[in-house]
Amino acid sequence: MGVVDLRSDTVTRPSPGMRKAIAEAQVGDDVFGDDPTVNRLQEKVASLLGQEAAIYVPSGTMANQTAIRAQTQPGDEIIAHADSHIYHYEAGAPAGLSGCSLRLLGGERGLFHPEDVRTAVRPADSHYPRSALVVVENTHNRGGGSIWPVDQIASIREVADEHGLRMHLDGARLLNACVATGHSPHEYTRHFDTVAICFSKGLGAPVGSAVAGSAEIIQRVHRFRKMFGGGMRQAGIIAAGALYALEHNVDRLAEDHANAKHLANALAEMPGVSIDPSTVETNIVYFDVDEAIGTAQSFCDALHERGVWILPLAPQRVRAVTHLDVSRGDINRAIIAVRDVLNSLAA
Ligand code: TLP
Fold this sequence. Notes:
- This protein is of the alpha/beta class and 347 residues long.
- It folds into 2 domains: 16-248, Type I PLP-dependent aspartate aminotransferase-like (Major domain) (Aspartate Aminotransferase, domain 2, 3-Layer(aba) Sandwich); 252-346, Aspartate Aminotransferase, domain 1, CATH 3.90.1150.
- The protein has 14 helices and 13 strands.
- It has helices at residues 16-23, 36-48, 60-70, 85-88, 93-98, 114-120, 150-162, 174-181, 185-189, 215-227, 236-248, 253-268, 296-305, 328-346, and strands at 4-5, 53-57, 76-81, 101-105, 130-137, 166-171, 194-198, 209-213, 273-274, 284-289, 308-309, 311-312, 317-321.
- The structure holds ligand TLP.
- Residues 8, 10, 59-61, 64, 85, 89, 137, 141, 170, 172, 198, 200, 209 line the site of ligand TLP.
């Protein structure tokens, strides 16, 4: 029996249909702008997100960081949540690549409020960094796949406009938010200057992300993509997987959400772990392991031996992520394995 890999939705592998699309992709040199498949993907993403232009980039990190670089100057400050991906998991890139500091906000499950932004904006005084950019993450990864209410984003945009700030959306999992709420992508993206989305998470493509925005900003992103080493040549080979993912794998994200809820509901019944299943809105499930059972690491090691892989992310906290390579049957196997581990560790 195979492994049930719940470490991340990045672990998906291309399906036979996707591999066929990849094998048959028409390609050209994308640094010259000649790759027809990349061009088709970029047009499709711009139209999906209701923005003027889009650019294909190798990773979600490069999508966020080229967008940041294109909209800031060294010495600027970025306003973001203390749990944001750009702060925790991008190798210090806002400082390393753009020379920016981060002004970190609190707020439940990765969501902050317009008043938090208003308070964080720096006065126009030469002692301070210049507040330049607000970054919102939707869904919010460390927030447990939480979804931003559209109204809250709209109110933050008003504050940003009052202070001349730009706004970037880390929408690595934006389409999860859209499928879960029924909102169109544009209902979210219209409030942002730039939007990053990823094809290699729940959408199941092997590689790639995109940044969308005005033609002028995307032109700047293009330059920084080259500077950061992300100018690719016959990238249609991988862009074909992304196009296939957008055409076939969006609506099915609902299955991942249902599987995450199913897992959360089962965990809520088990002594030895704690979770509030009502907080599971999309495909990410965080839960805590009681100290009496052991650490998150020892719990994950014991599950690993039973063929179920999840990630320890804090001393007592673990994360499981559902995706298109795990079925309801796999989730049921994971539930049985967790029960077994809890019984053996509690003994
Ligand atoms: N997230 C990964 C890890 O980096 C933690 C994961 O397994 O969830 N924005 C968000 C919200 C993300 O969750 C990720 C990846 C990225 C950006 C970066 O994407 P990549 O890994 O393609 O650089």
